[in-house]
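Hey, sorry to bother you again with one of my protein questions. I've been puzzling over a protein and I'd love to understand its fold better. Take your time with it, there's no hurry, and the full record follows here:
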Amino acid sequence: MQSRNVNKIISEVGKQILKYTKKIWAVEAVNHALKLFSICLCATLILSAADALIKIDGEEDTLEKYPEILSEIIPDAEFYELDIMEFEGEVKTVWEAKNSGGVIGYCVLLDIAGLRGPIEMVAGVCEDDGIIVVMGVKIISHNETQGLGSLVTENEFLGQFQSAEINNLQNIQAVTGATASSEIVKSGVMLAAETVRKIIRILETDG
């Protein structure tokens, strides 16, 4: 009888110890989980903040380089960003170029689909007696194949657009071995011209 009581007590004590041990494990598990969650949360916040800073820096760099590019396309002009219409798709922004004589042209910022990723470019155009004339083209960034598609960024190709009438772009010679990339840039220039045509119509209507 006494032996049974002792065994019962030992068993009860064992149960209480096990129960208490499980509680300790549970508390420790919760603590570890909270610590892990805190670490992950802090890491996420730090990465988000870093990403935001990188984006801000990137935007500032991009905004700083546009004036120089615009001035290379249309020298001796002041540029004013237009908001008379909502630009969609590949057209990102349009600037009006002015000098003391008035409006002398427009620069269109485009983000067109290249063969290996987006091509960011600016095309400058003006209207001369109802004909859209290209004033210049600059490629800002691209992912085209080095040594082939990348050659569309060079003046040997882009220089052909200078003073070309938009209806005569078929005379632009494609880069050897990069016909597709050449046509993509040409289509961007044509899109810029069409956009400026719309803007001129709107201005004439409002005027």
